[in-house]
Structure formats: structure tokens, C-alpha cells
Amino acid sequence: MNQVLSGIPRKVFPRVRCTVLQWRLASTTTASHTSSSTEKPAEFYDIIIAGGGMVGTTLACSLGKNPRLADRRILLLEAAAGFKQPLTETYSNRVSAISKGTHRLMKAIGAWDHIEATRVKPVLKMQVWDACSDALITFNYDDMADNISWIVENDVLLSSVYRQLEGVKNVEIRYSSRMEECSLIRDGAEKSTVRLSNGDRVQCELLVGADGFNSLVRRSMGVDNFTLAYNQMGVVATLKLAGAVANNVTAWQRFLPTGPIALLPLNDDMSSLVWSTTVAEAKRLVQLDEPSFVAALNEAFTKSYPRNNVIEEIMKNVNSLISSQTGQRLEPAPVVEAVMEKSRAAFPLGLGHTSTYVGHGVCLIGDAAHRVHPLAGQGVNLGFGDVQCLTDVLAEANYSGLGLNNIAELVKYEQERLRHNVPIILTTHGLQRLYTTDFAPIVGLRSIGLTITNSVPPLKKFLMNYAMS
Predict the structure, then answer these.
(1) Which residues contact 335 (CB under 8 A, 6 or more apart)?
(2) Distance CA 207, CA 49 (A)
(3) How far apart are CA 151 and CA 213, in angstroms?
(4) Does the CA dihedral 423-426-432-434 come out positive or negative?
(5) What pTM does this model have?
(6) Cα dist from 460 to 138, 139, 353, 467, whole Å
(7) Do 225 and 8 contact (CB within 8 A), yes or no?
(8) Which of 51, 67, 170, 456 is most buried when burial is the number of CB atoms within 10 A of its CB?
(9) What does the alpha-carbon distance between residue 137 and residue 460 come to, in Å, rounded to a whole number?
(10) Residue 174 bridge partners (DSSP)
(11) For the segment 362-375, what is each residue's pLDDT rounded down to a tens digit?
(12) CA–CA dist 369, 366 (Å, integer)
């Protein structure tokens, strides 16, 4: 276990109640600016959301549509010049596996109908297997009666949320609005002040940092933030399969010695690739010509790696003791025929977690608070879980007359999200460590664990429901 969770100091995952008062006393004060006589007065908003990505934009929509927050004025700051509607005929190379919790959130804010009318692919089954042994596990509901998740392009999801925001009167979006710095509520100040790159100032009762893993809001809080580089990159691409795969509803993931490779269905003859590998290999893959890249991709799903005779014998004995394992065979992943032009890209992978999600008049959501490896598809779902929880907490606080920057109420958000996020982050990190080695004892232990888990349907169902809830 120590090897699997190596590199994470204990302070990164504190007890559920973080010491926010210690942060308020110990953090350094952000440099403030004295307004000159010619400077425009700062415009006031009840809530300012810094960051107009999927999580920040969804929070703006969720807050704006909540009837208990209808009297509150909300500002969404987006650094880009505007949002370009995605081309309906071209699949994007960045997709998300939407959990049931996120699905419920999108339906609640009215965005799901537009997502369905554009493009979405349900996933009914998932197959995960080890390249260094015969161990495998499958996830699906009985008789494929329910979806495990939905594959949605990030641009499609964002476009659908923006469409919902068009009719929300108490939410204002400012494009081309990059934050230069922010002064938080402390030392007697009653409002947080954000200074934008164009010189404008805006103030608020609550500032929400949804500005990614390099969050300026988090840095202004002065809290500890642990980061760990995996020295890996994720290669993404949009793929054409060799012939239509009837009812292409399975997500495929194979753990290679260098990291997992996954195929996520987009339609009957197209899938999305997420391939986690070493930095050098990722850069090589992105530069390959198309035939060479397709060949490398198909080889990654079929290549036989050296096996340890002792592990092979142990696995035979384990399988013989598990009657439910009898007859289950590895299904081959679809064969890839082509990669869509200009769809290949690579991005660095890492882990991040801040010690405190909230302070007086400030809180963090999404990647500003936590960052995980994409192998379990949980990153954006954790962010959307933050959105739902924070909306509920703020709506109740406002309805009760407690205000939006009440630290005791914000701590409720922090506590609930830590209880959910920390186990997911630790599990994802553990899997990343566990499956990026071909060290024989580790291969043996993980193969036995995977095989036993696959033979216990109630355990599999629990894991599936927890991860995608």
C-alpha cells in the first residue's frame, strides 16, 4: 500500500474539517490597490465565478436557475473572447464520460435535451484488462438494462450549458475578462475585489475559483496545494473503426506497463482515444504519420507481453477456485482503421489537491481544488459534484438569511466534498501506481485482486455505483 500511495504527504488529505481559521490567520495578505480619483468605482455582484470552463459555466447556470438564489446577482468571468458553437459534423478530440450524478445535474439545469439533440453516446458496458496477465474485469448492469455512463464531447456539453444561460436574467457573462489579481475578505474588508486585465474592478460577497489547476484564486487564499507530476502525457484522438461495430456501447481499457489505453464509443463506427504513456512516447505518437499511428494503436490492444510462469500458475489456481469465472473470456477491442485529421493531441498528467476548499467569502471547485489522472474518467465528474453540492449549500444559506460568505455554511460544502473526493483521488492515484509497473509481485497481486473482484457481482456493482454516482 505504501508503494501504491507513494508521494502523497499526509497533510494533503486532512481530516474532513479543515482549519479554515488557521488559514485566515496565517495566509499572507494579497497586495491591495488604492483607488485613484480617476478610477471607476468597482461594480458589485453577489457571486463572482472566476473561470468559464465546463465546471464554472455549469455552476453559473445552476446558481442562476435555483429559485432560492433568484435575488442574487451573479457574474461569470471568461478569459476567452467568446464561445464558438461546435461544428455538428466534426467530433472533438476532448470528451468526458458523464456519470449518473452529472447526468442528473444536466437534466436539472435543462441542458441535457440539447446534449441529446446534438451528440451523445451511452456506455452500457466496460471491459478492463491487464496486458501483463490474463486478469480482466467487466462492468455492466444486468441484461444491459441501464447505462454506466455517457460519452459527451466537452464542446457539446459547454454549448448546451451556454444555451441555458441565455435565458437566466441574474447571470452576466463577461468575455475577454482575465483576472490580474484578487483581494479577499480579510483584515476588516467586507467584500472581495477582483482586478481584471483591462483595469476594471469588480467586487463580491462570494468569490468562486473555477479557474483550473493553476488557480489564481487558490494562490490568493495562500493555502497549501500538493501537486505530483506523473511524468506521463495523455494522447487523445478521434478514431474511425474498421467497419461499423454493431451497438458500439462498450468502453475498452487495457493497462499497459507504461499506462492505460482506452477507447470510448462515439457512434457505431467511431471512438475516442485516451492513451496515457510516457512523455517521450506521447510526443513520438503525436508525430507519427497516420498509418504508423494506427498500427501502434492496434498493437497496443493486442500485443503480448512477457509473462511470469509463477504468476501464470497462481492465476490458473485462482481461476479454478472461482466457479463464476468459468466461461468468461476476453472480448477483443475494435480494430482501428484511421485517425481523423488534426485530432491528435497530448497533454501532461498529474495529481493535485488543495488542503482547504473554502475561506471567508471564497471557495474552490473543480480543478482549482483537485486534479486526478484520467484513467477512471472521474476528473470532470468530481467538478460537477462540487457544483451540485455548492449550489445546494448556497441556496439553503440564502433562504435561511445566513448570507453567501458565512464560513460555517461554506464548511458544509467542504466537508461533503472531501468525503467524496478524497477516496476517489486516492483510489485513482493507487491504480496509477499499481498499473505502471511490470514488477512480478505487483503484477501478481493486482491480477489476483482484479480476478476476485470480477467474481463478486455485489462488489462490482458497489464499485460501479460509487464511481459513477
Answers:
(1) 241, 242, 298
(2) 6
(3) 23
(4) negative
(5) 0.89
(6) 9, 7, 27, 11
(7) no
(8) 51
(9) 9
(10) 77
(11) 999 999 999 998 88
(12) 6
